Amino acid sequence: MSQSDNLPEPMPKHVAIIMDGNGRWAKRRGLPRIEGHRRGVKSVRECVEFCAEIGLEQLTLYCLSSENWKRPEAELRRLMSLLEQFLIEDRRTILKQGLRFAMIGRREGLSDGVLHEIDKTVAMSKDNSGMRLCLALNYGSRAEIADAARDIAAKVATGDLKPEDIDETTVADHLYTAGMSDPDLLIRTAGELRLSNYLLWQISYAELWVTEKYWPEFRPPDLIEAFQSFAARDRRYGGLKN
What we know:
Layout: E1 14-18, H1 22-28, H2 33-53, E2 58-65, H3 73-96, E3 100-104, H4 112-125, E4 132-139, H5 141-157, H6 168-173, E5 185-188, E6 207-210, H7 220-231
Helix pairs in contact: 1-2, 2-3, 3-4
């Protein structure tokens, strides 16, 4: 029996994950923080492969927040190198699985090497029809909303948009996630009970699931546990159940 045989109904279509705890996992084992990030890549690979196998529509992973630039410069350089390595080594797998690759976040600050590999993978996978794998890099939800407001204001200033025509759809269409569905399920590892400036607009009605496991320990059976919790929820979207 495969792991996918244990899937409940209904299943989420779009899952977003805050991959937390790499550094703490490493510290508890007397390892350098970067080793936690390296081990976290294994979790990414296994979870992406599993989600693609079961037909998830989209998986969005919080890889680097706009607040993470406060970390030591040496750690950030290693993170950029690790990210670039992942993009190069896993491109063949992404294409083989028919995944559509995407990135959300500000490009400023990311290394030229990372941006080159991102653009290459996006271009090579754009005609695929499988799961969308979206990495949130240099991402902050408040910055995203501010950027959307700026773009909308510019269109109002040029007369391309009337203020009275601005609604929720207008805002959504100017976010980094334009054209993507909102997450149904938000998973956070390492036991922290906060959103960390992640997809604040998009997760308005997402179900939240938190595990004490650090991200390097997270595997497909943990995803199944989250899916089972999701399936047991009564999702009313502010209304009443019939």
